[in-house]
């Protein structure tokens, strides 16, 4: 270690020690006894040593069959070379755990309902919810379904052995991560079930939603006609689907019943067993009734979760272009998944090489492979499909026996699963989960709501990813993804032989008729009937346009013959997709620098469309001097949400005020319990906010006298009248907030990004820091004025032809280590912030740095 690094380590160690002392005095949840925390041999002092950057050394891992080398790049990327596939996965487990053990433990505890065991009763709501939802039940079933000789089973066992080698080593040396010491517990041994639960965590993050409950509440308050007009199935604004058809229409594929997981009539060794009923077909709901009590209770239950475990915003961009559009005549691909941005990051970068594998990219700690990246022949990235994957059923309960529900013409007895939730500092809590054929009952306040969601199905997704890592062409890529279940993902593709493609892989649940986007009847008529056949799901290969792309917009046009979801199901407003489409459609001679600029693009397409309408509405309106100054600024604006732009501030507050002034009177008059926008009085969820913003864009330009603009009292209003008033209100509010000179209303004064600590200790996070972008820019900043969600990993791969490795670049905001004392804790943030990238190298490429020699 250089003298400069030694100095920084000393400074960080002193600072962190002071922080721990301060936290101990003030208290952070259930802190441990001081004696164990400050034990000179095993306490927090060991973390300064553990935070040192790796040095070349020899390490013994008992489970290895042959020696393995692990080399580290200058930014902490791990390059693992093994002689067998078993040893590769074992080494991945060891290296991930070395850098992210507490994060991995937190993720498995979240999904398994065991947070209360280490942080106390504050986590009980989350634990109850997760045990009801059933990630643990599904993970056990997934493990039981793997054949004994399965390569996936072998990979999961090897990975677990590597994690456990690290746990044992840390316990011997007293170097467990500091959070284990602060919370005074030791991690349990890792099992394949834990990895499968983390797989379920990601499915829940991207697919679990309460949108059907919220739509049902909209129907009850606004009325079915108004709810349907304002929150329609198809988006009212122009979209850019990547799959333009013609579309196939084939019989549905039978879908394995969720009942196989959700109705475990007995638990033997933790694996559901017993004869189970099948899931029949679906029809429309037969009546709404007064069920707001049950629906609101379900929403409150979800609030017990952190944002990361409830799907709350549209996620991600990716695109690929053929060689006809690039400077070197070879395909180029880009991807930037938008997820919660935390320290440590959701991603861990690594490269692996063994007889069966040669890949490089980013992995999710707790899983044995990369999820996004490239191998020797192909590259890929992901965005969320946004298809409906969660269905709620209103069960008819027997008034004479509350343990019975009516389904398929007869009263059925609910099945139950018993859990004991250990709670730190108090007695354990018993939980009984009741299950119907549809799934677990999430609330019994008023009528009973059960949830049927894609994450309850057995899913071979880890097997799929292991196959995808070995794919050499699009046919093998397509074949591997035919078995992908959930979450629904848009897999973008480019290969060294000149081809590009995109497949929206996953299960798409279908109903025979009715309204699956609202709460359904549980009597049997409305059940799921099957899934869209794989060869009919949205996909494209080497299109004539020369490019493919996805940005959470609806992937197909209105001519698509199957139901995939509604405008309330998180389909993006389409503005990011518009910017990508407009940039790529006529582009030629593209380079990685062009792709990097597009990933950092802060043009708000909605603003570019709407601002001329706003300025036109102001003509003839009596304006104050400040109004005039603000309007003059807007007339000179190009729509960029740059950090120094005062127009960006005016626009953001205006569009929210316009939304509030248009829909707020109706929300108040009809006592709508569902919030509409994340930044104002209407706000909590984007499920409703997205379609309402779509409405405003479409109506302002094409239907300015739409009845929605009038007041519930019957007083007529137009779009122009509301916009003029909203603009003046915005200027008054900003003058109070930021001063009377509009030129000083820079976006960075009110808008910021932050990367909070997973440990929920503010001092261990990053920011808030003034930032550009907003919810509708390609460089997305989701979550309002202080964003903690956005591009979690940026990647660009430019192939160089059949015989050369590609030029591959990537960056994520964070660092490889979860230790706050490490120089690799947040060393990548500044590069990410400034739009810089680092090479994504394979094991065989020169990367320098120290090497670990792992031996049996």
Automatic annotation (TrEMBL):
Signal peptide: none annotated. Gene3D superfamilies: 1.10.1400.10, 2.30.120.10, Glutamine Phosphoribosylpyrophosphate, subunit 1, domain 1 (3.60.20.10), Penicillin Amidohydrolase, domain 1 (1.10.439.10). GO terms for biological process: antibiotic biosynthetic process. One of its GO terms (molecular function) is hydrolase activity, acting on carbon-nitrogen (but not peptide) bonds, in linear amides. InterPro entries: Ntn_hydrolases_N, Pen/GL7ACA/AHL_acylase, Penicillin_amidase_A-knob, Penicillin_amidase_dom1, Penicillin_amidase_N_B-knob, S45. Belongs to the peptidase S45 family. This is Penicillin acylase family protein. It comes from Sulfobacillus harzensis.
